[in-house]
Write a structure and sequence with these properties.
Among the domains are: 104 residues; 103 residues, no CATH class; 64 residues, no CATH class. It is 67% helix and 2% strand. A hairpin with a 4-residue loop joins β2 and β3.
């Protein structure tokens, strides 16, 4: 009790000093008096008194923003030294309430909310943690360091993915432009011009830009895996593969390159997939995993692939993928791989045949007529192929339908070609006649 009375007396004295300094407009003096009060409470381990004084000082009439900022920053240093979890949460909530709506302590508030969300997550309250983090829009904070902003948004995305809120995860991920990761960190920072906000240094636990790049693409892989968007997953792995720290370490880049190959062959055929396919085949590192070079070669060569032979060759590699970093390929991956092989075979047939019977096409694809018709129809609907099926005749026609202009142009071209041939023939006949006449005269 004696100690409590002494503390109250010291706080009262400092409150009078703080009032005088505040009324005199002395920024340094007000800040010093306010932080001294908090230090006294901390030294006495009077956590309830500390919370009360923070609220009291922040609500005093005409309180200087520099004093509030100094108080919040100092009190944040005490969070990790609290005796128990309840005291820690109470102090964070007090500081959070004090800093709410104040632009000059917006960075501190963001860090406080991040701490509180982490505590909630450790207690298994994922939804509460995600809701807390979404209250803060760090992209509008001019004074926050770029890496800290990115790290905060990535934490928001991760929590949304953990609670399976994929729509909000996508919205939040769009706040980060992937081009930001290509910036050169070695370049010197420009000195802020007069009137510009000074960017604060990021917190000590914030990863570097290249580490954040890897975290970003790993989260995007999680997002795209939900909808089985294989091409986007492949592009994410490609971006991770290009990170210098990954490319220099075979233990890291070999699993990533394997994933790139698998997701490439699982992706539906389109110009983007074709471009990635060719660029991956040109990669010299692919010689370290020759099985995958063979796989990519088979799916780019215009030859019909036997599914059973392909699956027997690569089944072990497919099963082995679950033991590699990055996990399994997903439950649907084996079915989708077979579907890609069927689509590849249909494209090969369409290249070499203008017309083919449905029965013969089914034999080439090793499918029933019904399955062949189903896969062919799906490819036509997705505009991967132009084809028409004559069911009564049982014939598939791969020639695109021509409009009237194309037909007329074709006729005009053929007629012009015919007249040109007639003219050349007449010229040759005339030449032979003249030569023959000259020979007779001689």
């Amino acid at each position: 009790m004696e100690g409590d009375g002494k503390l109250e007396a010291q706080i009262e004295a400092l409150l009078n000093v703080e009032k005088q300094m505040r009324q005199a407009g002395d920024v340094a003096g007000t800040r010093k008096a306010a932080t001294d009060i908090l230090h006294l409470c901390f030294e006495a381990r009077a956590w309830n008194t500390l919370n009360e004084q923070i609220v009291l000082l922040s609500k005093r009439r005409g309180q200087l923003k520099q004093a509030v900022q100094a108080m919040v920053q100092q009190a944040m240093q005490y969070i990790d030294q609290t005796p128990d979890l309840d005291t820690k949460i109470e102090l964070i909530k007090t500081l959070n309430n004090v800093s709410a709506g104040k632009i000059y302590v917006e960075i501190e508030r963001a860090r406080l909310i991040k701490k509180l969300a982490k505590i909630n997550e450790e207690q298994g309250k994922i939804a509460e943690a995600a809701d807390l983090m979404q209250e803060v829009a760090v992209e509008t904070f001019g004074a926050m360091a770029k890496t800290e902003k990115i790290a905060f948004i990535l934490e928001q995305v991760r929590l949304c993915l953990d609670r399976q809120d994929y729509v909000r995860a996508q919205i939040l991920s769009r706040k980060i432009n992937p081009k930001v990761f290509e910036a050169d960190p070695s370049k010197e920072k420009k000195k802020p011009k007069e009137g510009e906000n000074v960017v604060e240094e990021p917190a000590a636990d914030i990863p570097s830009l290249l580490e954040l790049k890897q975290i970003y693409y790993q989260l995007m892989i999680r997002y795209y895996s939900h909808s089985n968007d294989y091409l986007e997953i492949c592009r994410c792995y490609k971006a991770i593969y290009e990170i210098p720290s990954v490319k220099e370490d075979p233990a890291q880049w070999i699993p990533v390159l394997r994933k790139i190959c698998w997701y490439l062959v699982l992706s539906p055929h389109d110009p983007m997939q074709s471009s990635l396919h060719n660029s991956t085949l040109e990669d010299k590192n692919l010689s370290e995993i020759p099985h995958f070079r063979l796989l990519l070669k088979q799916l780019i060569t215009m030859e019909v692939i036997q599914w059973t032979a392909l699956w027997n060759t690569f089944k072990d590699e497919f099963e082995n993928e679950k033991n590699m970093p990055g996990g399994t390929l997903g439950d649907k991956a084996a079915e989708d791989l077979r579907l890609r092989v069927i689509e590849h075979n249909i494209l090969v047939v369409s290249k070499y045949y203008s017309r083919i019977t449905l029965k013969r096409l089914a034999d080439l694809l090793c499918l029933s007529i019904q399955e062949t018709e189903k896969h062919l129809s799906e490819m036509v609907v997705s505009k991967a192929l132009v084809a028409k099926i004559d069911r009564p005749m049982g014939v598939v026609c791969f020639q695109p339908a021509k409009d009237s202009n194309d037909i007329l142009n074709s006729w005009a071209f053929n007629l012009e070609k015919l007249l040109d041939l007639v003219e050349k023939s007449c010229h040759q006949i005339h030449k032979e006649t003249m030569v023959h006449k000259a020979a007779l005269k001689a």
